[in-house]
Amino acid sequence: MCTYRVWAPYAAEVELLLGDPDSPERVPMAAAGGGWFDSGREMTPGARYAFRLRAIAGHGAAEGDGPDHPGEWTAPLPDPRSQAQPDGPHGFSQVVDHAAHDWADGAWTGRILPGGLLYEMHVGTFSGSGDFAGVAEHLDHLVELGVTHLELMPVQPFGGDRNWGYDGVCWHAVHAGYGGPEGLKRLVEACHARGIAVVLDVVFNHFGPDGNYVGFFGPYTSGGNTGWGEVVNLTGPDSDEVRAYILDAVRQWFVDYHVDGLRLDAVHALHDEGAFHILEQMQVLAERISAQTGVPRSLIAESDQNDPRLTRARAAGGYGLAAQWDDDVHHALHTLVSGEDHAYYADFGTVEVLAETLGRAFHHAGRFSTFRGRRHGRPLDLATTPLSAFVTYTTTHDQTGNRAIGDRPSMNLSPARQALKAAVVACAPFTPMLFQGEEWGASTPFAFFCSHESELLQRLTREGRMREFARSGWDPEEVADPADPGTFAASRLDWAERAEQPHARLLAAYRELFALRRARPALTDPWAASVATTVDPAGRWLLLERATDPDLAEADRVLLAANFSDGPVTVDLPAGAPAGLLHTFADAAAEPGEGSVRLPAWGYAVLG
């Protein structure tokens, strides 16, 4: 292994603290150029260590330090490149020898995103044990559901024992409470053994507030604020090392953990003014690792910009990412089915808008956004980007957790309406994603929760949530207290309810819908046409048609008839359209007729 090294351009002197955190050996470190310091000591697997710095005047802040006491030694600080934090983000780091893990997934050849089904989960609330081992216990359920990609919300260390994960501070480490590095590797192996790829949600747009010590070492941030923390330094002085810090994290997850994909959180908050954008650099790295290993590696962006450049091919001037989340489809579907039209839902809520997003991915593609008070987005060129490059969903951790009480759609909608939303997502041309528990209409909420180790941070978080919801019209009295352990406990899934009604009927419908999606080429082909062939002039229903190239040997055609009204409707089918009933929901069963199909309130029929 290499020696203990650290990049600390803000430091005049650095000491390595090695061994027992209560009585460590102190090892002076020598400047090695470029802001790096080297101890000359070989790293030992399992060893505990930290750094202590004496800051250059005007940089960093030591314990009890201030303008009148510059240059004092800091308290022990974790390594910004720490691989493990057994005692949390405030404690000593630990050396991890990735080469020592004897991988058992040698037969794994990977999975591409097109044709797949993503499943987003939070490790701490998915199972009773709240760790990686608990996730592995439920993989059979995911296989039966047809899941091909398991997407884990962030697993980097955070303060306390409960958090969504977006407050991570050690971007190369794994939260000890979930099982640490070895636990994550065993989960990846278990997933691969069952044919499931693993996607890891990572946050490179800010550092969390609890345990954030990188500012002692160097200019990891550049001032300004993303709304969650300071802007990461991607183009300022010394930014080359910050970019390397990010790219090395990407490389580590792909190579050392065999992770198949990364979901990149809020990429619009990555302020990169360089000619070679950090997102494109990540994509180039992913392609290189894919070529070297023979296993596809995918990058999925979250962005609220409706920017086609993210998924446009690099040869056509884009970044070439495999996919991006598409909130417009969610908003169009949610608003139409639920009737909610406040805040960012204001421009949605009609069958026409849903039909538009199903065919073009974005509703805001350069048009005025009422919520933003300006034009927003850009049109997608379907000649360069397939619609399968957009991830769509009926809900996500954001769309559920960023509600006042964390109420799921299943807590407000009938099973028929839930199934209708699932049918649209399953039959649409995009890459579908489910959020943990939605497949059985879980009765448990998923609220925002955290357990910062500073009461001040807890109070500020609580007050910030109150202000945010007040602006959106929510009653502050309804807002779940994120610091209350009960908020976290209530968000755990109740697996026993899957066998109860109406949950069991909804789960059966989800299984049938996504089995049908796998079985029919028209629903899996990433280039299959998607056209809302008919939109009811009265705004009650639409027909969505999916078809492969008619000249192909496996030419296929599937229609979804969907009723978004409180009363029954009869939908006339186009001449020559398939009329065989492939699937309908038992609680709102459709009735096919001669050249038409009768749909009950909030009913649907998949025809082929």
Largest sheet: spatial strand order:
8-9-10-13-14-15-18-19
**For the CA atoms, what is the radius of gyration?**
25 Å
* CATH architect. name of one domain: Sandwich
- Tertiary shape: elongated
- What integer is the average pLDDT? 93
CATH class designation of one domain? Mainly Beta
Assembly level: single chain
* Helix content class: 10-25%
Strand composition percent: 15-25%
What does this structure look like?
The protein has 608 residues and is of the alpha/beta class. Strand 25 (591-592) and strand 26 (596-599) form a beta hairpin. The chain has an eight-stranded parallel β-barrel with strand order 8-9-10-13-14-15-18-19, surrounded by four helices. A five-stranded antiparallel sheet has the order 20-21-22-27-24. A four-stranded antiparallel sheet has the order 3-2-6-7, with no helix packed on it. Helices cover 25% and strands 20% of the residues. 50% of the residues are buried. Helix 8 (327-338) runs antiparallel to helix 9 and helix 11 runs parallel beside helix 14 (503-519). The model is unreliable at 61-68 (pLDDT under 50). Among the domains are: 3-77, Immunoglobulin-like, CATH 2.60.40.10; 520-607, Sandwich (Immunoglobulin-like), CATH 2.60.40. Belongs to the glycosyl hydrolase 13 family. Its EC number is 3.2.1.141.
Provide a compact summary of the structure.
The chain has 15 helices and 27 strands.
